[in-house]
Design brief:
With 112 residues, the chain is mainly α. Helix content is 56%, strand content 0%. Helix 1 (17-32) packs across helix 2 (39-53).
Length: 112
Amino acid sequence: MKNRKRLLGAGRKRISAQLESHLLEWIVAQREQGLRISTKTIQIKTKSIFPRLVSEPEINFKASNGWLQKFLKRNGLSLRRKTTMAQKDPDQLFQKNCLFHSVRQPSQKKYQ
């Protein structure tokens, strides 16, 4: 069986390049403000701006999970959770380590 590659330009076309660029700008602006963005938030925003940017009312656009994943992939985006663990400055780590050992050593002497 031969491996066939898809022809250039084949496949389903994007609904609206203007919609996607507007949505991408919004996502970047939200991230710059340090705001969290979920898949649901992106889908809701897309549905709200779709009627303003696309003039063809016969298009039934749902902003499905599949569309969203492909949009993120096309634009090199990924959704990640913010963690509470952050890499600390080495000076802060050294100070915490010293404080830990200074508190720990006297308590160990009591039990020896």
